[in-house]
Amino acid sequence: MTDTISNRERVISTEAIVLHRIDLRETDRIFVILSDKFGKMSVIAKGIRRPTARSAGHLELFARTRLMLAKGRDLDVVTSAESINLHLNLRTDLTAMAIASHLTELVERFLPEREENRVTFNLLTRALDQLDTGGSPHRIGRWFEIRLLGEMGVRPELYNCVVCDRPVEAEPNAFNVRLGGVVCSEHAPSSAGSVLVSVAAQKILRLLLRADLDAYLALSPSPEVDTEVESILTAFVQYHLERDLKSLRVMRRVEESIPIWTAGYKSTK
User: Burial of 196 by CB count in 10 Å (0-12 exposed, 13-18 middle, 19+ buried)?
Assistant: First the structure.
């Protein structure tokens, strides 16, 4: 359905992904959504927490939903909701749920209010769909992070030294979060806070910049390289947000719990 605004009725029709929700009073709930045309916005669903509320099941976290919104004085009001994809499968995997929470938190933190960003909407749709169909959660997370960084205009420099702008050699190079990318061997010693990055991790990071998600999911890098890539991108994201991410703390707790009580489930995937 194409997004439209009726000046007469002041009604908005839009597709949206549910990023966050906040209970309000006894029966209402505020939702932070990512609209495919109107960007990130907050809306209110009145009476949504009543047992008889028809829209409740269509406004779960991570759901892609078609909404009708009435223009309100402070917040637009949800008048109807019809789910397109509830992403039910990802809810059976703790790691997939943790990554989905991480992605929606990134969108909520990075995007301004009510500024159209269809590219980010499509990126998040693709990532959630892949999580729902069993794709590697951590790799989907890394792909989304670097693509979102690019959309926000702060993607890392991975080809030229951020100090002298010369192409870096095909060797382990330093990476400096504060400076925004790789640092050549000549300038690494004088760049405080730099960390060494393996050739394999540099190749993966470059692939993430230029290739589609399917190409990354098809690779088989070592767990050490995956961890290295994750560490670099996590530090880069947190630096640009200037805060820790709640979803990362939750993710670590989930990973610590998996070997204890979901090892059998994970091994059968």
Answer: exposed
Contact criterion met (CB below 8 Å) for 62 and 99: no
Burial letters 108-117, b for 16+ CB under 10 A, else e: ebbbeeeeeb
Instruction: Return the structure tokens found at 85.
Output: 């994809």
- Residue 77 tokens read as 């009001």
* Euclidean distance between CA atoms 269 and 90, whole angstroms: 12
Structural domain boundaries enclosing 112? 89-267
Task: Specify the CATH number for the domain of residue 43.
Answer: 2.40.50.140
Number of H helices, E strands in the chain: 8, 9
In whole angstroms, give the CA distance from residue 38 to residue 151: 16
pLDDT digits (tens, 9 = 90+) for 204-253: 999 999 988 999 999 988 999 999 999 999 999 999 997 666 655 555 55
Q: Which of 17, 6, 5, 62 is nearest to 43 (CA)?
A: 17
CA torsion sign for 160, 161, 165, 167 is negative
* Backbone phi, psi, residue 146, to 5°: -70, -30
Under a CB-based contact definition with an 8 Å cutoff, are residues 40 and 112 in contact?
Answer: yes
Same domain, 142 and 196: yes
